[in-house]
Amino acid sequence: MMMAAAVNQSEAQLSTNFYANSCPNALSTIRNSIRTAISRERRMAASLLRLHFHDCFVHGCDASILLDQSPTITSEKTAPPNDKSARGYELIDAAKARLETICPGVVSCADVLAVAAKEASAYVGGPSWAVKLGRRDSTSAFPDETLTDLPFFKADLQTLIDNFGAKGLSPRDMVALSGAHTLGQAQCFTFRDRIYSNGTDNIIDRGFASTRRRRCPAVGGDDALAAMDLVTPNSFDNNYFRNLVQRKGLLETDQVLFSGGSTDSIVMEYSRSPSRFSADFAAAMIRMGDIQPLTGSAGQIRRICGAVNN
To answer: How large is the C-alpha radius of gyration of the chain?
Structure first.
C-alpha cells in the first residue's frame, strides 16, 4: 500500500501539457525522430517499448537505464537483464539531441523515453495515448535493482503478480503490458528450457516447439533470435494472446499467463477483443509511466542522456 500511495502521489505532478509553453514543438520533434528510426528498422518499436519498461521498473521512470558507465556511475546497460538485449539507446540520444537544438535543457530524457514508447506503439498499429510529462532525470544508476525488480523470464504467475503489484500495477495491467510481446524477438537462452521440456507444468504446442528448435539448438546458440509472435512479428495486434490460448507462448512468463491460473480469463478476453486489449494496454502504459518519477527540483534535466550534467 505504501508503494501505491507513493506512485499515486507523484501522478499529480505530471501533466500532458507540461511543455506547452517551455518547448511547444517537443512532442512533434520526438515523434518525427522516432518514426523515421522505426521506418528504417521496424523491430525498434519493440525495443523502445521494452526500454521504457526496463527504465520504469528500476527505481521509477527516471532515465537511469540510459546512463553510460563512468568513474562515478555503474551502468544498468551491462546488468544481466539489459546486457546484449536492451536496444534503442541511440534513438533516444538522437531525439534528445534534436530537442537540445530547439529548447536546450528543457525536456528530460525520461520524458523522451515515455513519448518514444507511445510513438513506437502507434507507428506499428498499436494504440496511442496522451503521455503525462514532467519527469526529471536521475543522477544515479541502479544496476542491482535490475536483478530484483525486473521480471525474470522463468518467473511463475504469482511472482509476476507480486512483481507488478509492488509497482502499483494490477494483474490486468500485467497481462496487458505483457501483450507488448506481440512485437520483437527473444534470445534462444530465454526460451530453450520451454521448447525442449515435456514437463506437465510447461505445456507447449508440439509443432510450435519443433519449429522453434530449428533456430535454437539444445546446446549453444544462446544469442539466436526468434520472433515473439510467429504470425505478425512486426505488427501490434492481439495475436500474442491467441498464441497463448494455443499453447504457443515463447517464454515461460508468457505461457504462465494462460496455464489454468487467475489470469486465464483476461487472456481469453484479449484474444477475442483487440479493442479491449488496446484500450487496456494504453491505460497500463500510462500507469506504468507514473511509477516514482522525479519531479520538481529532484534529479536534473540531463543535456546528454548517457551522462550526468557536469
So the answer is: 19
